[in-house]
Specification:
Layout (H helix, E strand, L loop, with lengths): L5 E6 L18 H12 L7 E5 L4 E5 L1 H9 L4 E8 L2 H14 L6 H13 L8 H8 L3 H20 L4
Parallel strand pairs: 2-4
Antiparallel strand pairs: 1-4, 2-3
C-alpha cells in the first residue's frame, strides 16, 4: 500500500461519501454506527479515517462506519489521514483495508468487488491471480467471473438472452 499520508482534521462535508468507493454491497452496519455514535458523544477517540485526494476531491477509502457515525453525532470534522491518489486508489485501499481488520467482506461483497475490478478500464487488464490476491478469493473464481462477463458481452452483441 502507498506510504502514509498527512494527518489532519478534515471537514466531513468536503469528503465525497457517495463517490462509489464503498466496497460493501450493503454499506455500513447500523449497529456498529450506533455504537460508534455513542462512543463519539462520550469523547472516545477513534483512529483516523483514510481518504485519497486527487487535487479536487477527497475520496474515502477506510472509515465509512466512523464517518457515518461522526455525521450522526453532529460533528463537523473528522480526523483523517490524507493520501495523494484517485478514486480508484481509494477503492483499492478500501479492499485491502477490509481484508486487514474489522468485519470480513461477505461473499456478495467479494463478488461485487471482483466484477468491479474486471470491468474497470485499468484493473480489468490485471491477471486473474492479481485480482484474486487483491480481493482474497481464488484465481479460478476470478476466471469464472471474467468468462461470464465475456459471455454476457457476446450474448449482448448477438441479441441472445441467457
Amino acid at each position: 500500500m502507498p506510504a502514509k499520508g498527512q494527518l489532519i482534521m478534515l471537514p466531513l462535508a468536503s469528503i465525497n461519501w457517495k463517490g462509489n468507493t464503498q466496497v460493501r454491497v450493503k454499506g455500513v452496519n447500523e449497529d456498529t454506527v450506533s455504537r460508534y455514535v455513542e462512543d463519539m458523544l462520550r469523547g472516545v477517540e477513534f483512529p483516523p479515517i483514510v481518504v485519497f485526494y486527487d487535487g479536487k476531491c477527497y475520496w474515502p477509502a477506510d472509515g465509512f462506519h466512523r464517518g457515518n457515525a461522526a455525521h450522526r453525532a453532529g460533528l463537523s470534522d473528522i480526523y483523517a489521514e490524507v493520501r495523494q491518489g484517485t478514486q480508484r486508489d481509494a477503492l483499492l485501499y478500501g479492499i485491502w483495508a477490509n481484508r486487514q481488520h474489522g468485519v470480513s467482506l461477505s461473499n456478495a461483497d467479494k463478488r461485487a468487488v471482483v466484477l468491479r475490478l474486471l470491468t474497470d478500464p485499468e484493473t480489468g487488464g490485471w491477471s486473474d491471480h492479481r485480482i484474486a490476491r487483491e480481493v482474497g478469493v481464488d484465481h479460478k473464481t476470478v476466471g469464472n467471473y471474467r468468462r461470464s462477463l465475456k459471455g454476457a458481452a457476446v450474448d449482448g452483441k448477438s441479441g441472445v438472452n441467457r
